[in-house]
Amino acid sequence: NTIEFTTPDAPAGTETVSTSAELEAKLASASKCPVIALNPGLYRFVSDVDGSLVGLDITKSVTIMSATAAMPVVQCKALSVKNTTDINLIRLENIHWDADAANTGTYLFDIQSSIAGNIGSIEIVGCKITNLYNSVVRASRTAAFGPKNIKIDNCQMYNMNCKESFIGYTSGATSYSVESISVSNTTITNVGWDTIETRMFSLVGSDNMVFKLENNTITINSTAKNGTIHYRANSTGSTTGGKAEIKNNIIYIINN
Predict the structure, then answer these.
(1) Please, which residues have CB within 8 angstroms of residue 171's CB and are 6 or more apart in sequence?
(2) Cα distances (angstroms) measured from residue 83 to each of 20, 72, 155, 162
(3) Is the full-model pTM beyond 0.70?
(4) How does pLDDT run across 167-184, given as a tens digit for each residue?
(5) Which among 153, 27, 126, 1 has a CA at the least distance from the CA of 70?
């Protein structure tokens, strides 16, 4: 038998980049650029002062994906979401996102308190995520806006300290709360929750939030016996229809 792999055609409007400077320029551009395709290679973003990792600002809808079947490697402190108008989608596809585990400020997505526009969805699909010190998605407690939906599918995530919750969605603002979170077909290994009250998921959700955890393998290293799911409805009334679907997962919690 012969197995063939083909790279799908890039969507209309795709712009291809090959360097860190080109990627940063496309993200900073005021013009619409719905899809940025990265050629194979290393895209590293560091301070000119001390060489430490720095963040990349996201202010518009964008998909960042690989241009070929080979995963490009992106190293930065965080994708700092700072939109001032509504955006529909931020999506990562077939990207290896790596951070310095010793850098105490590293996140994948860091939703800033200064944002002033809704975010429809954040999607992380077919990616490898490594060496994060803090959260995969962190929403500021003071943010008045944020992503309504988070989807993680078919990813590999490992070697993460998780000094904050894996997904920390703890905004105190009543104007927004998460509507759905889905983590599926993903392997999460060598993840440490050693800070007291850090959790796998710490969520402020809508009354009807849908949480799905399906077909995953998760290994948690925790001397503090963390690794729980914490959910609180951000409600002005009674919780009417929220639900959790947790099935076909293998979860190990190792108390070292």
Answers:
(1) 139, 140, 141, 142, 143, 144, 146, 177, 204, 234
(2) 21, 25, 26, 25
(3) yes
(4) 666 554 444 567 888 999
(5) 126
